[in-house]
Amino acid sequence: MHHFVSQKFNGSKNTPKMINEQYPKIYLYRRLVQAKLFIDAHYLDNIDLDNIADEACFSKFHFIRQFKNIYRKTPHQYLIFVRIEKAMELLKADIPVSVVCYTVGFESLSSFSRLFKRVVGIAPSTYLIRQQIIKTQIVESPLAFIPGCFAEKYGWLEK
Amino acid sequence: MITKMTHVNIYVLNQDSALDFYTNKFGLKVIMDVPMGKDTRWLTVGTPEQPGFEINLTPITEDLFSKETAEALRDLVKKGTFGVGVFTCNDVYATYEELKAKGVEFTKPPTKEFYGTEALFKDDSGNWFSLAQLV
Q1: Stated pTM of the model
Q2: Total number of domains constituting chain A
Q3: Which of B35, B64, B94 has the CB atom closest to A154's CB atom?
Q4: What residues of A are in contact with residue B34 (Cβ under 8 Å)?
Q5: How many A×B Cβ pairs under 8 Å?
Q6: Chain B residue numbers touching A30 (CB-CB < 8 A)
Q7: Per-residue DSSP letters for B39-94?
Q8: Which of A122, A158, B55, B119 could form a disulfide with A126 if both were Cys (CB 3.0 to 4.6 A apart)?
């Protein structure tokens, strides 16, 4: 990979050694980071991962391999991860499961629930209920969620 | 016997702005957000990769400190007096490029050191950190 990028983007043989080693790498990183940020921004659209590879000037398999090197997930796994993370955020905000499912880009409730359960360990409906319970508890007794030493230091125990 | 460190304070100038920095730019998640009095929230953030460790974004308000202390502390934080800690990542170049793209201010680009590769950045208040990929 180094070889490919060096040839394409850093032809000069007279560049100082440090730049020769670093710059091509940074160029490669920028393309991968752009691809990742693209997924972050468009996770709810029907993203075609082949397109991302094209735009990042990679062959599909090279792209997947490089992406996984950096992010420890394939682009597809990462997309699922982002969608589930976002789903957790929305469920925390008390949005109903069916709305969350379509909001984060899934087309069927059953595949959403199955994937959510696989990643988080519990069904989205259970997650929603647990978050509601935690929220009620926080409103009723906020100090139960704050380490006592902080609460005491700031005088919250007296109020 | 001590087992773990679970909470650490970062003194911030403004909680709303710190929340935006640490979540939207730096990529952490909110763990607790509990209102405590008029200008102050119990606001903690963390990374899903390290459950059980919360960074408490403590506002420098006169709710929590004397006027004199708050002023002094605000000045010191703004001046970049406090190096707060080290965040590690799998790939420092990728993380550096991403954070830079999101507007995080770096004072040192990734540089090879004997213990790994390290960059330095500042939060929106002036606290600075190391971002490192340890070998």
Answers
A1: 0.81
A2: 2
A3: B64
A4: 138, 142, 145-146
A5: 51
A6: 97
A7: S-EEEEEE-TTSTT-EEEEEE--TTTS-HHHHHHHHHHHHTT--EEEEEE-S-HHH
A8: A122
